[in-house]
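## Example record

The block below lists the input lines for one assembly entry, exactly as stored, with component labels intact.
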Amino acid sequence: QVQLVQSGSELRKPGASVKVSCKASGYTFTRYAINWVRQAPGQGLEWMGWIDPNTVNPTYAQDFTGRFVFSLDTSVSTAYLEISGLKPEDSAIYYCAREAAPMDYWGQGTLVTVSS
Amino acid sequence: DIQMTQSPSSLSASVGDRVTITCRASQGIRNELGWYQREPGKAPKRLIYAASSLQSGVPSRFSGSGSGTEFTLTISSLQPEDFATYYCLQYNSLPPTFGQGTKLQIK
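Predicted structure tokens for the full assembly:
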């Protein structure tokens, strides 16, 4: 069965970086793009962008350019989200989701907390 | 960006009740809308895609309807496991945008 399993919760200080992983199984990894979605405390779901495993070409939503980087390692069917220069307002749950018009399978979410 | 207005934001209901959640798009999105269920600590689950197509494995008490700008998710007879938060998502144009969510609580 299709599964996306994300890495565990992270606690970082402001200015640090974090890298969240999303390991896919149960399907051919290169056939589907991976979306990243953020949910900040008390907020709704916000699409951050996606990355196409065929082209390894990321697309970023307007609010997620600069400090956010999507990457892939197709040899281990894993997508990554790296956030640099962390700010307290980056504290959120980050989800990966397989793109299937619309997103069908999701990871369980990774809580990132940014606090001094 | 297309704005998705979801209502109500919260809803109290009892097991066995029929409930309806609505999403309105700021412009026409044809039938390019999905519905999701999210329980705390779990991965969001797709219930409906293409406005009215039931995801494989999802109970038939869930149904979706609508086209253009008005969409509804109906749960015909609430079960205890249905108390969760529900979101709509438009995927007609980039960026995909979500409704603000409906928290379904036990009365």
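Chain A has a mean pLDDT of 96. Residues 24 and 33 of chain A are 11 Å apart (CA to CA).
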